[in-house]
Amino acid sequence: xxxxxxxxxxxxxxxxxxxxxRPGYAHLGVPRSGALDSAAxxxxxxxxxxxxxxxxxxxxxxxxxxxxxxxxxVAVVGAPCPVTVDGRPVAWGAPVRVPAGALLDxxxxxxxxxxxxxxxxxxxxxxxxxxxxxxxxxxxxxxPLADGAVIPLGHAAAPHARVDTVPHPxxxxxxxxxxxxGPRADWFTGAALRTLTTRAYRVSSASxxxxxxxEGPALERACTDELPSEGMVLGAVQVxxxxxxxxxxxxxxxxxGYPVIAVVREADLAGAAQAAPGTPVRFVPTGQR
Length: 289
What we know:
By secondary structure, this protein is mainly beta. It contains 3 helices and 20 strands. InterPro entries: CT_A_B (IPR003778), Cyclophilin-like_dom_sf (IPR029000), PxpC (IPR052708).
């Protein structure tokens, strides 16, 4: 096996391979997938000299640990966390050279949820539908990392950035989600629309890559009919029978049978990727019903 690879020593709670996803296949029932905090993934790639589309690791809360078989430049961004090489602290948010055989340990997130680990040359698992992303809903792409797995790396095509650190938004203390009402806002009472945009919600611990679930007041339906399955988009705020809004994220289904009361602006979804359970959530209307 090639030495352009790394061995997984500690897979963490959930570590997946992600790039910028596979848009354009929703008509075939294939979600976009890709890094939930796409800006962080692109930044990590810039730091190590990769193109923005290169595949990275996305960790969840607990980080991960890997042992490269070759010397490689690595950058960790996203949720702030301790990073060590063979037990020695190294920089977060900056390119770091990791010798062959050394243990790179990405620790638990200090705040936020997801870290992004870029390697010079990118993670070189086989692409599926032009993307290397793991899609937890459809099962496309590589499986989540497991202890003992060996993951291939590509060859670095450009030198890494010459910086000590880079600015990056902190994980949100309060998640502000700007929404446009519709397409099924008329399935809810006027009181429900006011509740959505004036009452406090919190991020639920049941959130995942498919959707950010919320805890808070239930939204009252004006129409209780069954809704035929219809197309869903990234950022759709779907309301299941319990009345608590769910914000669809990268691995969301392409169709659904519960009404969508509003849609979140895509620019706000990176914050949703880093909002830990218990984070306050506010939905702010930006358009007219």
